[in-house]
Design goal:
Length: about 210
């Protein structure tokens, strides 16, 4: 599925908030894999945003820690790495879960990194790692299904589209590019060399 399904339900903003347009090669080289094309289009067209009043998609090189793709890999994976309840290993293990989004309720949303990126499915779990749900499609298809009501995971009824489908965050007011730091030395990721982004600015919601 392409991003067109999502665009039909949630048109991209005219001026997306701090979108990521690349380059992608450094990140993908560090990850050791390319990333899905629908995700690249998503963060380019929509930037920083909240979907369905709750879902925050992680954006590469974001200056906001809880929205930064690189930093969220560590912040999400490290606390749950040893939990036996997960039905899949965590990235960077083969077939592992790579975090791509989370909700304001603490639910976690991952790619199942198995096969070509275009075939990666979506795995959801609640904050207590008790309830699981798999969406047999890509990230933008998942968001479109949630927005349209076609995909309604029973264990995640609190994400039903009852409020605002899309809220673009406030725009950056400038500032230096974020610094990077090597986080592989203390986090047990073996040979991976993905870097996290150090906060150097804040992204603030627009005032109403």
């Amino acid at each position: 599925m392409t991003i067109s399904a999502l665009v039909n339900f949630i048109p991209p903003p005219r001026l997306p908030s701090a979108p990521f347009r690349g380059p992608w090669e450094p990140l993908e080289t560090q990850l050791g894999t390319t990333l899905p094309e629908d995700y690249k289009a998503l963060v380019r067209l929509y930037g920083h945003a909240t979907y369905l009043d709750a879902i925050i998609v992680h954006v590469p090189r974001s200056r906001i820690r809880h929205a930064c793709f690189e930093t969220c890999i560590r912040d999400i994976c490290d606390p749950i790495r040893e939990l036996a309840e997960l039905p899949y290993p965590l990235w960077p293990e083969a077939g592992g879960l790579l975090p791509v989004a989370h909700t304001e309720f603490g639910d976690l949303i991952f790619w199942i990194v198995d096969g070509p990126p275009s075939t990666w499915r979506i795995f959801m779990c609640d904050r207590d790692i008790v309830d699981f749900q798999i969406f047999d499609g890509d990230l933008t298809g998942f968001l479109a299904g949630m927005a349209s009501g076609e995909f309604q995971p029973e264990a995640f009824a609190h994400l039903a589209p009852e409020g605002t489908l899309f809220n673009s965050w406030g725009r950056y007011d400038g500032g230096p590019r974020p610094a990077t730091e090597d986080w592989t030395r203390s986090s047990g990721y073996g040979q991976t060399t993905v870097q996290s982004v150090t906060l150097s600015a804040q992204l603030k919601p627009q005032k109403s």
